[in-house]
Specification:
The protein has about 500 residues and is of the alpha/beta class. The protein is built from 18 helices and 13 strands. The longest helix is centred in the last third of the chain and has 36 residues, at about 390-425. Bound molecules: adenosine-5'-diphosphate (ADP) and magnesium ion (MG).
Amino acid sequence: MSVMTTIAAVRSFHPARSPRRAPRPRVVMTAVRSSTISAHPILTKLQRDCATPLPVLRHVSDAMAADMRDGLAADGGSDLKMILSYVDALPTGNEKGLFYALDLGGTNFRVLRVQLGGKSERVVATEFEQVSIPSELMFGTSEELFDFIASGLAKFANEEAGKFLFDQMGRTRELGFTFSFPVKQTSIDSGILIKWTKGFAVSGTAGKDVVSCLNEAMERLGMNMRVSALVNDTVGTLAGARYWDDDVMVAVILGTGTNACYVERVEAIPKLLLDPNSKSGSMIVNTEWGAFANGIPLTEFDREMDAESINPGEQIFEKTISGMYLGEIARRVLLKMAKEDRIFGESVPEKLQTPYSLRTPDICAIQQDSSKDFEVVGSILHEVSGVNSNPSSRKIVMDVCDTIAKRGGRLAGAGIVGILQKMEGDTKGVIFGKRTVVAMDGGLYEHYPQYRNYLQEAVTELLGVEASKNIVIEHSKDGSGIGAALLAATNSMYEH
Ligand code: ADP
Ligand code: MG
């Protein structure tokens, strides 16, 4: 596999490079060791295999930037798809009126309405509702699914009252549609579904325009509403954050999965320039960076998890940094420690052998325990994995969790720097010469403080203290819903 060859290459060069920086992580590790009864060999090897010293981070950020360029040059040109969003006008704050959004990305869909009051009043009011999708619809026909969604939307729209005012006679209500499944877009308001993912197996949608599917379902119900913008959740997050802050150039989601998008100049997108309808200016590009794989330090646990996953060999970056996997990697390490070294006693509990039984929120909670004997760690381990532990095995568990979170956070940070470097490389000063904001969202980023700190630390290490002062990495909570409504406003059929 190409991934492994590259890693070997990275390993061989990093000890030689930058000897000045090498002692730093070692100091930290000595401190950790002195508080444990004895260093555990599996832990020591894990820490070595997961290490992300500066040369590794630098390799990752450089490779990310290079893969981005290749993906922009041609479809299929790199691991990164670099999907064109056709979002070429970002919210300015001047948007006015009532707009709707629909977010479909998992087992729930969310509907939202927002009353926009322009520069002075901004967001006058918002309201949203969440509807869960009955599981039989995930295996039904396309029409059944979209009829269900449209009827939820119709019910929600019928409750429009109070501060929400649609006073545009003869017009139709406009909707921003956040759709987090792979689509091939050719314009802001159309996109062909490539395939369903995340457990959906709806027949008859693949190969069709999902915007038409929704518009037709709304028509069948006689609704006065249509889709003006089809966006990915990362793109929605960027638009939502940009509404409040003109310096937002990048958005990153770190939740169950991960993705990133950024504002690119049209001249820097060769594959778009081939399109006769391309305009000058800029466009949001959805990197689909979860598929990145170049030079990521991997362990035996990652390789085994990948091999047993539903998509072996794919989404390697996602499998190393996102919420779905961090707990599972840690579980695999603990299982090996339990089997080979009996750190939890003679028998290996059933629960610890169950894939995905240790979740990322669990390893996060484990890391928050500051009590002397790590009692919280003990009870989480017992509850989730059925293991009995003592203070010294709990300390080892904490170090395992920290190692996995550290690698994830630092690699995510290197990925962000890769995007910034790509943008700066095209136009000097455009990123590092002024304030630039990276909008972050997703449950992992929001709830895991150590992960967040490791991410920031890697960005600062890579950029240096001075340059990193201009880079603001900021949580933008749930911006994607409003972002989609804003893009419906920006792309309103009545304004063009
Ligand atoms: P999604 O990515 O599914 O759209 P979210 O952005 O809300 O949804 O992210 C949910 C994910 O965030 C969970 O799958 C989990 O991996 C991670 N997560 C949630 N809570 C925590 C927590 N307390 N600590 C660490 N990770 C968490
Ligand atoms: Mg999400």
